[in-house]
Write a structure and sequence with these properties.
By secondary structure, the protein is mainly alpha-helical. Helix content is 54%, strand content 6%. The longest helix has 20 residues.
Length: 141
């Protein structure tokens, strides 16, 4: 079974954190690191990869940090996970042809489509909103 790596999980978590912040403002790396109890170095590697995928922008200096490149409702969980994991599939591309029949091949195809449809249906804004609700308050937007 395919598992999302901790890097993928942290990427989704940090992107949700950025989505909860005031739009257009940079969140310092050290603050993100502290809030998520991650080392600055590890978190920076994740954010660099998200930046290369065009999902976040980093800025150095006293007012530096990271911010989303677009509105939170324009991102999907699938887009973020694929930036870290590549394609989301329950099987590796090198699976032996002896492991499937036409019926099981259809099952795996349907399974992959279901997973991808789900992660593509969840927006970053939906995740951020749920976080705000669970925190006991809702930001005024």
């Amino acid at each position: 079974m395919y598992k999302i790596s901790t890097r993928g999980q942290y990427a989704l978590l940090v992107m949700t954190d950025l989505a909860e912040n005031e739009e257009g403002t940079y969140t310092p790396l050290k603050l993100l690191s502290h809030r998520r109890n991650l080392s600055v170095k590890y978190l920076e590697q994740i954010l660099i990869q998200l930046g290369k995928a065009g999902l976040v922008t980093g800025n150095r200096g006293s007012n530096g940090g990271y911010k989303l490149n677009k509105d939170a409702n324009e991102y999907t969980a699938g887009e973020i996970l694929r930036a870290m994991e590549g394609e989301l599939s329950p099987r590796s591309p090198s699976e032996s042809p002896y492991l499937t029949s036409k019926a099981t091949e259809n099952f795996w195809t349907d399974f992959a489509e279901t997973v991808n449809h789900y992660v593509d249906s969840v927006t970053l804004e939906q995740l951020a909103k749920k976080n705000r609700e669970f925190s006991g308050f809702e930001y005024c937007i």
